[in-house]
C-alpha cells in the first residue's frame, strides 16, 4: 500500500516550486524506494526512474505499479507480457478491466491470479471462484483465495460456507499457518453479527498496528543532510515549518506544528537522531558503551549499561531486536566504526569443517597458495593438530594464526564473524542533547512520554529507552528530571537512581 508523505506534500502545497527541487534531489540521491513507495511522486519522475532501471525488470515493474505512472509505459508493458513487469503493473489501481483481462490471459500465473483478484473483488464473479477454490485440496488452491477472504465483500452464502466448514483450514499452501478463520477476521466488510459469531468460535480480529512503518522521503532527506552530504538547510526548514518531527534535533527553529502520533514518533526514531544525540554523549559515562550482537540471522547494534542494557543482555539471542532502542546492525553508519574479525579457533574451523581430513579438503583447492591456510588450520586443530605435528615434524610459529584468520575472513559467512563497534571520532557530528535549547528538550521528552502509551510495542519500548537515556544524561535539566521521576516507570526510575549512587 502506497502512502503519502504529509510533510513533503504540505511543503509543496505551500510552495509548489519546491516539487521540482525535491524530486530532482531524490533522483540524484538514487532514493528509489522513496520514489516508488509514496503516492506523491510525479509522472515525469517515474518515467525517468523507469529509464534508469532499464536493466532491472523488477524495479521497472515497481514503477509500473505506481498510480502516477504514464499510460504509454503501461501499454508497452502489457504488450511485452514480461512476468517481472506484470508482477508490479498488476497492482496499479488505475488499470482498466481490459488491462486486467489481458494480464489474466498472460503466461505468468501469479500476475494472472492478482489480475483475477482485482477484476472479481466485490463483484458477483467472486462467489463462484471462492466456492470453487474451497472445494479443492489446500495445496491446490490459488494463493489469491486468502486475499478474497480477507478483503473482498463476501456474500452471505460464502460467509456461511466458510464458518460452517472451513474455519480451521489453511487457505492455501502459501498461507504461513494462518487459518481461514484468522484471515476472515481481517475482512473489514463483516457484519457485527458475523464478528460476534466468529468470536464465540474462537476467532477474534487482532488489533491493527499502524502500517506506515516506512521512512518518509522527507525523513530520508534529513538523515542524508545529517550524514554530512550537501542538502540546503532551507529545504529542510520548509519541512520543519509544517511540523516534521526531525526538526526537534535539527535546528533551533521552533517546531510548534508538531503533532504527537505514532507515525511521527516512528519517523523521529527511525532517523536515529536520538541515538546519535544521546548515545554519543553517554559513551563512557556510568559504564555506558556500544555493543554488537552478530550471528545467524542476527545483527543487532545496541548499548551496554547496567539498567538501560539489562533487558537486551538477558534476552534470547534471536529476540534482542525487539528491545527498545536496538538498531539493525547490517546498515552502514558513518557515525560509528566496525572492527570485523574472526577468533582464531573459529577461523581454523572454517577449513577443518570442509572435510574429515586434510586430504579430503585439498580437493576444494587448485593452487598450493589457496591450500596453505587450510593446511595450517589442520595443524593448529585442537584435536587432530598435535598428532599431525608429531607425525610430520612440523612446528607452527606465531605467524600461522594471522594467515589462517585472513584467509578465513574471505570465506566466512556473516554469522561466523565477531564485530566490535565504537564511535567514529572523525565524524563531524552536529546532533547533541547537551546543546539543545531547554524548550526543545522538554518537547522531545513530552513526545517520548506520549510514546509510552503507543499500541505499537516496539515504539513503546523505544520511547522508554530514550527517556531512560535522558534520565541518565548528566546535562538533562532539573525540570525534566522531575517530570521523569513522576512517571513511576521502573526502567526510568532505576536509571535516575544511579545518579545518587
Commentary on this structure:
The chain is mainly α and 501 residues long. 52% of the residues lie in helices and 6% in strands. Among the domains are: 6-12 and 28-200; 13-27 and 207-271, no CATH class; 344-411, no CATH class. It has helices spanning 6-14, 18-28, 32-36, 43-52, 57-64, 71-80, 83-89, 97-104, 109-120, 126-134, 144-151, 156-165, 180-185, 192-200, 217-226, 233-241, 247-250, 262-270, 273-282, 310-314, 344-352, 358-361, 368-379, 385-392, 400-411, 438-451, 457-472, 478-485, 490-496, and strands at residues 289-295, 298-304, 327-328, 336-341, 418-423. Helix 19 (273-282) packs parallel to helix 27. The longest helix has 16 residues, at 457-472. It is globular, with a radius of gyration of 28 Å.
Quickly describe the structure:
It contains 29 helices and 5 strands.
Number of strands: 5
Q: What is the straight-line distance between the termini?
A: 51 Å
The gyration radius over C-alpha positions equals 28 Å
Widest sheet: strand ordering: 1-2-3
Mean pLDDT: 90
Please summarize the sheet with the most strands: 3 strands, antiparallel
Tally of helical segments = 29
Give unreliable regions as ranges. none
Query: What is the percent of helical residues?
Result: 40-55%
Shape: globular
Structural class: mainly alpha
Describe the oligomeric state of these chains in a short phrase.
single chain
Portion in strands: 5-15%
Amino acid at each position: 500500500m502506497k502512502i503519502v508523505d504529509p510533510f513533503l506534500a504540505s511543503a509543496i502545497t505551500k510552495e509548489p516550486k519546491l516539487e521540482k527541487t525535491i524530486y530532482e534531489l531524490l533522483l540524484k540521491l538514487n532514493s528509489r524506494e522513496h520514489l516508488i513507495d509514496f503516492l506523491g511522486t510525479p509522472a515525469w519522475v517515474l518515467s525517468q526512474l523507469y529509464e534508469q532501471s532499464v536493466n532491472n525488470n523488477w524495479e521497472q515493474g515497481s514503477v509500473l505499479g505506481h498510480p502516477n505512472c504514464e499510460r504509454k509505459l503501461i501499454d508497452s508493458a502489457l504488450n511485452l507480457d514480461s512476468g517481472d513487469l506484470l508482477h508490479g503493473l498488476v497492482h496499479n489501481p488505475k488499470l482498466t478491466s481490459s488491462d486486467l483481462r489481458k494480464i489474466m490471459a498472460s503466461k505468468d500465473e501469479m500476475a494472472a491470479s492478482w489480475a483475477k483478484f482485482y477484476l472479481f473483488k466485490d463483484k458477483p464473479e467472486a462467489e463462484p471462484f471462492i466456492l470453487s477454490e474451497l472445494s479443492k485440496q489446500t495445496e491446490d488452491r490459488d494463493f489469491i483465495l486468502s486475499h478474497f477472504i480477507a478483503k473482498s465483500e463476501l456474500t452471505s452464502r460464502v460467509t456461511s460456507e466458510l464458518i460452517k466448514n472451513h474455519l480451521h483450514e489453511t487457505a492455501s499452501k502459501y498461507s504461513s499457518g494462518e487459518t481461514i478463520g484468522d484471515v476472515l477476521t481481517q475482512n473489514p466488510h463483516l457484519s457485527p453479527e458475523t464478528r460476534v459469531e466468529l468470536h464465540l468460535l474462537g476467532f477474534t480480529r487482532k488489533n491493527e498496528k499502524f502500517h506506515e512503518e516506512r521512512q518518509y522521503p522527507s525523513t530520508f532527506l534529513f538523515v542524508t543532510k545529517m550524514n554530512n552530504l550537501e542538502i540546503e538547510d532551507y529545504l529542510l526548514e520548509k519541512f520543519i515549518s509544517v511540523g516534521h518531527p526531525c526538526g526537534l534535533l535539527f535546528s533551533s527553529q521552533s517546531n510548534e506544528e508538531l503533532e504527537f502520533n505514532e507515525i511521527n514518533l516512528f519517523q523521529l526514531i527511525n532517523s536515529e537522531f536520538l541515538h546519535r544525540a544521546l548515545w554519543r554523549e553517554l559513551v563512557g559515562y556510568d559504564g555506558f558503551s556500544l555493543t554488537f550482537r552478530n550471528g545467524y540471522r542476527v545483527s543487532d547494534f545496541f548499548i551496554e549499561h547496567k539498567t538501560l542494557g539489562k533487558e537486551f543482555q538477558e534476552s534470547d539471542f534471536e529476540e534482542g531486536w525487539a528491545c527498545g532502542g536496538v538498531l539493525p546492525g547490517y546498515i552502514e553508519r558513518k557515525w560509528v566504526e566496525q572492527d570485523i574479525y574472526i577468533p582464531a579457533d573459529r577461523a581454523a574451523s572454517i577449513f577443518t569443517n570442509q572435510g574429515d581430513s586434510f586430504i579430503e579438503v585439498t580437493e576444494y583447492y587448485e593452487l598450493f597458495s589457496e591450500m596453505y591456510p587450510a593446511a595450517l588450520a589442520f595443524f593448529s586443530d585442537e584435536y587432530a593438530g598435535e598428532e599431525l605435528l608429531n607425525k610430520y615434524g612440523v612446528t607452527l610459529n606465531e605467524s600461522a594464526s594471522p594467515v589462517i584468520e585472513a584467509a578465513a575472513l574471505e570465506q566466512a559467512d556473516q554469522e561466523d564473524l565477531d564485530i566490535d563497534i565504537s564511535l567514529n571520532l572523525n565524524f563531524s557530528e552536529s546532533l547533541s542533547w547537551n546543546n539543545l535549547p531547554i524548550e526543545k528538550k522538554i518537547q522531545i521528552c513530552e513526545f517520548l512520554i506520549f510514546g509510552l502509551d503507543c499500541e505499537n510495542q516496539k515504539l513503546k519500548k523505544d520511547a522508554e529507552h530514550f527517556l531512560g537515556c535522558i534520565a541518565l544524561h548528566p546535562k538533562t535539566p532539573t525540570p525534566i528530571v522531575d517530570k521523569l521521576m513522576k512517571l513511576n516507570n521502573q526502567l526510568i526510575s532505576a536509571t535516575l537512581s544511579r545518579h545518587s549512587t
